[in-house]
């Protein structure tokens, strides 16, 4: 097995352990030493992969966004227009354990985004790619006559994006988070608005 | 001047300084020593007011929510129904410097809410009070025939609350945050949906 495969696997393992540490003990608990500890590696074994704590944290935040986007791409594959929007939006909801954990990791980085340009850029990039996909599927939906709303694409995209961000943030509150049933209903209502012709 | 007034003023000063520290240097930079430093007090002068860092942080988070709720109460005063909802929702938007700073302080505590039950309870309490007010004004609006949507009050409240949370979180991204004009448009669109009678 080539050496780079081992390296990639080790990196993934360290990033996954960092995500779990963030969930269990909070972002402040993450140190290279602590990540070595929970993965059973020797002290200093993390440095060849992530020379600094910031690099490890950035990789963890980036991976959460990349995973969400990869899941969206798979879910949407082969669909267009309204159905593609539905699949994208549902996929970004914190509906199950995997997606709730991902949402919690991402939410943990909101504060870092106010202090750290690199983290802010990761958020901005993710939101930009989400927006680009929404605009594309709205265009497809309008071309096929499925999307008939008088609202501008810009308003539709803003509403969907920031509602989804709010719902992902809601899971950080644990017990008080909005239920999966109500999350799905909100997405269906957003989609329904799109089909209403101008009065 | 009674001693308690001095004490209250000093507490407010320390909480305000903590908010500024969070904005300028991040939540992790807050220590009792650092807050004493930036307020020009002697080391140890903070302890009589806030014996622990957690108490100071909780007071800072609580104050941000209390201020937002007090502003909403003032803005809504004397109105009911749809107009009261409009004023509440606009007041919770991060439209100007004061409200953007408040939104950034609150956003900084999202990660803490995942780790600290007391912080989670502050968020849950704020959201519950926001919801209660929304339900009240929706009832008033339905009674007067202004609110005609077929959507349940629960769906309307979920959508508004989590969109507003998402918009407040968006300001943490700084330059990429949604503009005040677009924020206001989203609130107007939400209100417009409420006036649409069932098809």
UniProtKB/TrEMBL annotation, chains A, B:
InterPro entries: BetI_C (IPR039538), Homeodomain-like_sf (IPR009057), HTH-type_TetR-like_transc_reg (IPR050109), HTH_TetR (IPR001647), Tet_transcr_reg_TetR-rel_C_sf (IPR036271)
Keywords, in A-Z order: DNA-binding, Repressor, Transcription, Transcription regulation
GO terms for MF: DNA-binding transcription factor activity; transcription cis-regulatory region binding
DNA-binding residue intervals: 31-50
PROSITE patterns named in the record: HTH_TETR_2
A Pfam family assignment: TetR_N
Domain (HTH tetR-type): residue spans on this chain: 8-68
Protein name (record): DNA-binding transcriptional regulator, AcrR family
Organism of derivation: Cellulomonas marina
């Amino acid at each position: 097995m080539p050496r780079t495969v081992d390296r990639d696997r080790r990196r993934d393992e360290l990033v996954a352990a960092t995500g779990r540490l963030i969930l269990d003990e909070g972002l402040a608990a993450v140190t290279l030493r602590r990540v070595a500890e929970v993965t059973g590696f020797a002290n200093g074994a993390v440095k060849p992969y992530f020379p600094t704590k910031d690099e490890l944290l950035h990789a963890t935040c980036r991976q959460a966004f990349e995973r969400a986007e990869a899941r969206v791409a798979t879910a949407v594959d082969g669909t267009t227009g309204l159905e593609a929007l539905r699949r994208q939006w549902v996929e970004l909801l914190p509906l199950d354990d995997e997606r709730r954990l991902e949402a919690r990791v991402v939410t943990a980085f909101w504060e870092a985004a106010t202090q750290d340009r690199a983290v802010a850029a990761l958020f901005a990039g993710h939101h930009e790619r989400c927006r680009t996909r929404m605009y594309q599927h709205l265009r497809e939906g309008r071309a096929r006559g499925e999307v008939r709303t008088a609202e501008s694409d810009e308003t539709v995209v803003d509403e969907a994006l920031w509602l989804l961000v709010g719902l992902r943030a809601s899971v950080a509150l644990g017990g008080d988070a909005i239920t999966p049933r109500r999350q799905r209903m909100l997405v269906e209502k957003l989609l329904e608005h799109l089909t209403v012709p101008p009065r």
